[in-house]
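I hope you will forgive my troubling you with a question about protein structure. Here, with my thanks, is the record as I have it:
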Amino acid sequence: MDNSIQNIALLFSLYLRPTLLNQIARIFAATSSKTPLLLEGPPGIGKTHVVTQVCKLLSKDCERINMSADTSLDQLIGCIIPRCIDGRRVFEWQDGKVVDALRNHRWILFNELNLASPEVLEGLIPLFYRGSKEFIVPSINEHVDTSSALIFATMNPATIGRGRSKLPRSISNLFTIVQLEDYKEDELRIILSDLFRFDINKLTVNNEQL
């Protein structure tokens, strides 16, 4: 194992198993295309973790935004809010998480994208256009540079339910979709053996229990 692979292993805090290496390679390949990247796979396989750690490897700041049915466009894009300045009530624009990330040249990760409402997804569509150089903030008609931005999204399959829906084709077609695999049983045993090495050495846990 050369130094670069060792560094990746240290960063991910796990032995690099073939499945994880394959996931990392797919993400690196997709980032080179500069198109929005959607990672889909079973719960608990580390979709979000892989993205955030790849960003760290590339020295890129990443804004993680957890989506839900309650997420609003005001939270993401921004809104006009009242403030009290010198005893007077004034109204000012306040950037949402997405616009703030774009202004500060951070990459953006939408976690559990298919939990968002249709209204929110519709409002984000201009951000997903391939080759787009700017995002127009609707309420104030301001053009925000997106040339250095990269968009990631993760989602669990809609078949598991719990408020998840299948993404409309008009949105999924804007992404490069990467299907991530679950870890194989032998890989999980190796990972668990590493995590519980101390207990195994103390004989409080054995391999059969893993």
Notes: Strands lie at 37-40, 62-66, 78-85, 88-95, 107-111, 134-137, 142-145, 151-155, 176-179. The chain has one domain: 10-182. Confidence is low (pLDDT under 50) at residues 1-6. The CA atoms of residues 39 and 154 lie 5 Å apart.
